[in-house]
Amino acid sequence: xxxxxxxxxxxxxxxxxxxxxxxxxxxxxxxxxxxxxxxxxxxxxxxxxxxxxxxxxxxxxxxxxxxxxxxxxxxxxxxxxxxxxxxxxxxxxxxxxxxxxxxxxxxxxxxxxxxxxxxxxxxxxxxxxxxxxxxxxxxxxxxxxxxxxxxxxx
Length: 154
Prior knowledge:
By secondary structure, the chain is mostly helical. It has one domain: Four Helix Bundle (Hemerythrin (Met), subunit A), CATH 1.20.120. It is about 85% helix and about 0% strand. The protein has five helices and no strands. It has helices at about 1-55, 55-85, 90-115, 120-135, 140-145. Helix 1 packs antiparallel against helix 2.
């Protein structure tokens, strides 16, 4: 009886350790994917700003191509992050990030449309009034200030 109890305890310890390792791996993967996504998103924001402030059509086309590749990479990272298990707390943060992404995408579409139509003054107004404020939420500190410290995963 005591021997079987000892075997049971010996069997439980490794299984708990293995489950803790998997949890740690998931957390590390989420952190890496999140940092990759933040980097790609910030690069995309800089590309949008470059499109808005660029005088050369050829250079603007180059930035648009880079932006399309960056958006594709961000979508790939989003897909990989969605495949990982998430807590309810993390789902709230992901939903907030998608809202930020939607506001930046809408502002960027307006800026690019105005830029393509040659309305330079409107482009500058849109950059200052819509694009920059919505893009600031992608900065981790801006996200923290907007959504509050109680929403941060730690």
